[in-house]
């Protein structure tokens, strides 16, 4: 149930590196009205403040994030429905092209029409007065992020295999940091830092701790995390259709409460 003192719902979207979190977030922002994105990446500490692990700076862990600042921003958003005056998500202004998302324009148009019909013709859709803030992040539901858990009303998780995650991560363009500098991942970073950290923080969600295996359905149900039922390897056409169906259902249930 949404707290009576808020005018904004927070939807968490998480998953392994390069699982399609940001692309999905941007697509949902464009499909649903009154929706904006807060990116966890906006809360990374400065490069000089990152700790070393296996001889490499570790930017893929909870310790690399300014968690109190993230919690404070979410608290403000829940109350005011916008970013605090002194902050904004630098990644929230980019539209998603068909070539980038690999989702047909006709699919997006059909999903927009579906949502428009829901908001105009159903009782729940008509009564939805909340804004939606999508919290896009690689690390949201683990115990190390407990300070922000109270702010998330709906939680989605996208699975992707080690192979798909590594191929996409290592094929990405270098990161442009807040100060304008460019950071290129050093050789071995994925296998030494990214994937081991993902396993450590998310093993509790999977049978035998195998993040390439089956999700513990009872555990994610208890934590109220919705997981894409089929392994799509981040194939966005199927993923965005699933997410739209889930969000319409979740919003309908929340309005009913």
Molecular structure report:
The chain contains 10 helices and 9 strands. It is of the alpha/beta class. The chain has a single domain (8-200, 232-256), classed as Rossmann fold, CATH 3.40.50. Strands 2-5-1-6-9 form a 5-stranded parallel β-sheet, with helices on both faces. Strands 3-4 form a two-stranded antiparallel sheet. A two-stranded antiparallel sheet has the order 7-8. The chain is globular and about 55 Å long. The N and C termini lie close together (6 Å). The mean pLDDT is 89.
- Any idea of the CATH class? Alpha Beta
- Taken in chain order, the helices and strands follow as EHEEEHHHHEHEHEEHHEH
Number of domains: 1
Kindly name the structural category. Answer: alpha/beta
Q: State the end-to-end CA separation.
A: 6 Å
Note the beta-strand portion: 5-15%
Question: Major beta sheet, specifics?
Answer: 5 strands, parallel
Q: Reading side by side through the largest sheet, how are the strands ordered?
A: 2-5-1-6-9
CATH H-tier superfamily = P-loop containing nucleotide triphosphate hydrolases
Low-confidence stretches: none
- Helical content, roughly? 40-55%
Overall number of strands = 9
Report the principal-axis shape. Answer: globular
Mean pLDDT: 89
- Assembly form of the protein: single chain
Under CATH, the topology can be stated as Rossmann fold
Radius of gyration, rounded? 18 Å
Number of helices: 10
CATH architecture: 3-Layer(aba) Sandwich
Keywords: Hydrolase
Protein name: P-loop containing nucleoside triphosphate hydrolase protein
InterPro entries: P-loop_NTPase (IPR027417)
GO molecular function: hydrolase activity
